[in-house]
Amino acid sequence: MIGHKYLREEAYEANMEIKRRGLAIYTWGNSSAFDPGKGIFAIKPSGVDYEKLSPDSMVLVDLQGNVAEGKLKPSSDTKTHLVLYREFNAQDKNIRGITHTHSTYAAAWAQAKKPVPVFGTTHADYALCEIPCTEYMSREAVKNDYELETGSLIADTLKKYSLKPDAVSMILVAGHGPFTWGSSAANSVFNSAVLEEICKMAFLTVTLDPLAKPLPDHIIQKHWERKHGAGAYYGQR
Fold it and tell me: For 36, how many CA atoms within 13 A lie in the half-sphere containing its CB?
């Protein structure tokens, strides 16, 4: 068996979950699984249909961008994942998965270049703040190295709003689509599914009431803390 079986299998299962959850069609979207101790991640190969994927088809890449193992070309978004793992690993070694999709509602908010306000408690359960949206990438950045600059744009946007990757696990890239991350590849796909539902709910909210206001801060705080705070009591402990 090819080395790093655990990473390949984790990345494979995450990519198949993208398909199962309807977050991408055809060859769209990608997920990766990262081992911070070894500085290597497994990612979906570029342009391969989900039905043709297998654990062995996942490509292993190091943080210098070198293909460590794999016969196929890695995802075209590999450099974006690489930049984010570098940035996140310096802040939080628990970020071990990244997912990118073109899910309909999240992509629509990204194309509208709009952050997603906290309209309800579903959003507040997973983020204390609005889901940020980046600026458009500059002409110079696109000419330089588009995928690498996408990662830098995401990292810079989080810094601009003083957001840490453990505080918000999702972002919209203007004109492009959503990226999410988490404690595992599976968790990053979970966050992609959550983001899609939040974006759908927000779209329906502004459709029903174009002047809708965000949820009051004290309700946002309550819903976040009951899941994530020191005294969290949601779920089984």
Answer: 18
Q: Residue 142: CB partners within 8 Å, gap ≥ 6?
A: 149
Assess whether 234 carries a catalytic annotation: yes
Closest Cα to residue 65, out of 44, 46, 79?
79
Q: Which of 125, 145, 209, 233 is catalytic?
A: 125
In this prediction, residue 3 carries a pLDDT of 60
Judge whether 212 lies within some domain.
Answer: yes
Domain that holds residue 191: 5-228
Structural domains counted in the chain: 1
Mean pLDDT across the chain, nearest whole number?
A: 95
CA distance 160 to 84: 15
- Please enumerate in sequence order all residues whose Cβ is within 8 A of that of 63, keeping only pairs 6 or more positions apart, or say none: 39, 40, 82, 85, 86
Per residue in 114-165, pLDDT (tens digit) is 999 999 999 999 999 999 999 999 999 999 999 999 999 999 999 999 999 9
State yes or no: is 77 an active-site residue: no
- Both tokens of 80, joined, read 């974006």
Q: What tokens were used for 215?
A: 């949820």
User: Looking at residue 1, what is its pLDDT?
Assistant: 37
Smallest CA-to-CA distance from 170 within 148, 191, 198, 139 is with 191
Residue in 86, 81, 83 with CA at minimum distance from that of residue 181: 81
Task: Give me the CATH number covering residue 149.
Answer: 3.40.225.10
Confidence (pTM): 0.95
